[in-house]
Amino acid sequence: MAAAIAAELGAAVFAVNDAATKHLFDNRYGTGQSTLDGILRATNILLAGKVFVVVGYGWCGRGLALRARGMGARVVVCEVDPVAALEAVMEGYQVRPGAVAYTLPGGNREGSGEGGAPSPERRVIVLAEGRLVGQSCAEASPAEVMDLTFATQALAVTGLATAADPLPPGLHPVPAEIEERVARHKLAALGIRCDHLTAAQKAYLKSWRLGT
Length: 212
Hints:
By secondary structure, the protein is an alpha/beta fold. It is built from nine helices and seven strands; from the N terminus they run αβαβαβαβαββααβαα.
């Protein structure tokens, strides 16, 4: 698989979308916020008390579920990955198969059927032609979180261009030192300091003689 990817790419490529400084922040907090913002701008609905179905509990889904719950919605998650589904359960969400989730009460408008009996009416409203709601109906992710992604991208490109020993063709993870550098600069910009390991602590972590 790796050889096939390398042959297809023909050059070294960093997988920036897999970087922690990308998916943990841009996807989860940026996309989670902008997507909900887009939905509210386009529909002007009240989320409190509604059933809000999130299909896919990846990083974007995590962020969206978190914000929908914060607005008072009853969040249901649909997921095919059992590990992600279990995580959603542990976070307090309902996990249901898609066919079940979409028939839950809470989003129906009551109408009149034959003989005056209540008849649930269901409507599907497609926002942004089914494309990226946060970009189309809102203003996309805030610059305060996109700076992490852009900094990681810039440093990754710089690293590829200036490497003393060029990387072989293929897909490579973003080096840990780049991620750490971006995170530390972001913390500094926010006026936040974090701890650093001492030399003794680093030696302890690497040793198999000193316990667990």
